[in-house]
Design brief:
The structure holds two protein chains of two kinds.
Chain A (H helix, E strand, L loop, with lengths): L6 E6 L11 E7 L2 E8 L7 H6 L3 H9 L6 H16 L5 H29 L3 H22 L8 E2 L2 E2 L5 H27 L1 H7 L7 H7 L3 H5 L7 H4 L20 H24 L17 E9 L2 E9 L5 E7 L1 H5 L3 H5 L7 H8 L10 E3 L8 E3 L1 H14 L5 H11 L1
Antiparallel strand pairs in A: 1-2, 2-3, 4-5, 6-7, 7-8, 9-10
Chain B lengths: L1 H13 L7 E5 L2 E5 L5 H10 L7 E10 L2 E9 L5 E9 L4 E3 L10 H11 L2 E3 L35
Parallel strand pairs in B: 2-5, 6-7
Antiparallel strand pairs in B: 1-2, 3-4, 4-5
The chains are: A alpha+beta, B alpha/beta.
């Protein structure tokens, strides 16, 4: 039983220099060990679903592309798949293959981004520099194909917007060869580099039972041994025709999540080669009607971070009645408190980063309170610095003389 | 679509009130409507009966459909089949029981969203932070109801 008087609560967020997005994680600590985690989300809520009701389907295509900057093609495609199902539109085979191509390029850029962020969180900045250098290769390909590095707008309702030329095909295949070689090296690093293995193993553990119970999705779930992938289970675009393996791992920790993601990179290269070598002839898009009939559809899409789910209800006009979006983080965040039970404070950044959002450091204003919320006291940065100096001085560590000597030397 | 139709037939036989309320729209997509008083009979059967085994709740969608609030529970099986179960509660008393305690603890944010943006009352939802609206959001304003417009909001209070 933890003595409530020993519990320290540290708020991380909602606005924090190290957070990529606003969120508030209040961690309760007993010494270094984490005993509780309280989540407060919603700081980035922009009312996209309400906004969609006042816009046409075509405008919404661009709006939903902006739900996420990294998984932009994922959300746009997931939304469009619903609209196409309601409208009874059949996407031509070439259009489906082109969507798959962009989708896998997006997965590569997202996984390289993640690898860099995760490496940075554990102080392995060499790997961050390497993986983000390699990510540029795929960003250049996306820019070549669509004109944009992110938010590619590669879809139209009924198919794909951009076709691929023979020169572009050659450039993609050449770049994929390079990336594959580099990924092989990262797999070697991940399976042989002892400091990396030691730092990530047994951190942020979550069992297969908990993953199933909480509904966790994507690489996070697959690294706990759950073979679940919307590309295989509920196939869309060209995934029914393209051979690929669903990568799983049974480490159940951050190390396993790393292995799953680098393994998925290798599968993405295979998929891209297959798509380009077997690209069907014919049109890239079917003609879409301006007004979408009344009806409803739900669609799933395996985004790099996990499964996106969109629901669309049409009312027979050019604007939807209702659009509903679920991004993978919405469900994966609920698994973070379970992952962090009994872990050290130092494991918080890498564990949260391992589901794919990320943050580090602790806040500058620290609210110290008993576990029952009483006796709260807020320390400013200066006060907490002063508290630390006094505490060490009382315990026999005093730098006064050293500081004086240093100041004299510097004169 | 034999699999989907088998589910449809079996459910109609087990629950006669689902007659003509179940539609198979395509491969792997089944839709059904059920009155709120019968909701948990059907939901429990789909989730817990070993024969059907819908172990995943992908999402809960809430809609404003005139006098009622409509909730759609998007259930899925490991083979990709989705069962979309709809139910309705009157706006005058929009009460529905939680699915987080007995079925899906991961549904917490979906249910909190129903409370915040549509004004649903979810019985049995454990205490916790609101989601997704800010703490200072005025009571009684539910942005995803059709009669709500942004100019109804006094932004000075937020």
């Amino acid at each position: 039983m933890v003595n409530p008087e020993k519990i320290v609560k540290i708020p991380i967020g909602p606005q924090h220099p190290a957070l990529k997005e606003p969120a508030c994680f209040t961690v309760s600590l007993n010494g270094e060990k984490l005993v509780d985690l309280d989540l407060r989300l919603g700081y980035n809520h922009r009312g996209v679903e309400k906004a969609a009701e006042g816009r046409t389907y075509t405008q919404n295509m661009y709006l939903f592309e902006r739900v996420c900057g990294i998984c932009s093609h994922s959300h746009a495609t997931c939304f469009i798949q619903c609209v196409e199902e309601v409208a009874g539109l059949e996407v031509p085979p070439r259009g489906r293959f082109l969507r798959t191509l962009i989708g896998e390029l997006e997965r590569i850029h997202s996984h390289f981004l993640w690898l860099g962020v995760a490496a940075h969180e554990i102080g392995f900045d060499t790997l961050l520099m390497y993986s983000w250098r390699d990510r540029e290769v795929v960003m250049d390909l996306l820019a070549m194909l669509t004109g944009n590095r992110v938010n590619y707008a590669a879809n139209v309702i009924g198919g794909a917007k951009h076709d691929v030329t023979d020169e572009q095909k050659a450039a993609i295949l050449k770049a994929v060869d390079t990336l594959e070689e580099r990924t092989k090296y990262y797999i070697e690093v991940a399976s042989e580099e002892t400091t990396l293995i030691a730092r990530l193993s047994n951190v942020g553990r979550i069992s297969l039972e908990d993953v199933k119970r909480l509904g966790t999705v994507g690489p996070t779930a697959r690294a706990s041994g759950l073979s679940q992938d919307a590309r295989r289970d509920d196939p869309y675009a060209a995934y029914k025709e393209v051979p690929f393996s669903v990568i799983t791992d049974t480490h159940c920790d951050v190390y396993g999540r790393t292995l799953v993601r680098v393994g998925e990179l290798m599968e993405s290269y295979k998929i891209i080669r297959y798509v380009l070598q077997n690209l069907p002839d014919g049109p890239i898009a079917a003609k879409a009607p301006r007004k979408i009939p009344a009806g409803e559809a739900v669609s799933r899409y395996e985004a790099p971070r996990g499964e996106d789910v969109h629901y669309v209800r049409g009312n027979g006009t050019e604007k939807p009645e209702r659009v509903r979006v679920r991004a993978p983080t919405m469900v994966n965040l609920l698994s973070v408190p379970k992952m962090l039970e009994g872990n050290n404070l130092a494991d918080v950044p890498i564990t949260v980063a391992a589901i794919d959002p990320c943050f580090s450091c602790t806040d500058r204003a620290i609210r110290v309170a008993d576990a029952d919320g009483g006796n709260a006291q807020v320390f400013s940065w200066e006060e907490s610095r002063r508290f630390g100096i006094d505490w060490y001085r009382k315990n026999g560590v005093d730098f006064t003389d050293v500081n004086k000597r240093l100041a004299q030397r510097l004169k | 679509m034999a699999n989907e139709q088998a589910i449809q037939m079996e459910l109609q036989d087990t629950f006669p009130y689902l007659n003509e309320k179940i539609v198979v729209t395509r491969e792997r997509r089944i839709w059904a409507e059920v009155a709120s008083e019968h909701f948990f009979e059907v939901f429990d059967y789909l989730v817990k009966h070993p024969k059907w085994d819908f172990p995943i709740l992908c999402l809960i969608t809430g809609l404003d459909s005139g006098d009622n609030l409509e909730f759609i529970y998007h259930l899925a099986r490991r083979d990709g089949t989705m069962f979309n179960l709809k139910t309705f509660v009157p706006k005058s008393n929009p009460v529905h029981k939680t699915v987080t305690t007995d079925y899906f603890p991961g549904a917490e944010l979906y249910e909190r969203e129903l409370v915040d943006v549509l004004g649903a009352k979810i019985e049995g939802l454990p205490p916790g932070n609101r989601y997704p609206l800010p703490d200072g959001w005025p009571d009684g304003q539910y942005p995803l109801r059709k009669d709500w417009t942004p100019d109804m909001l006094d932004k000075g209070n937020l």
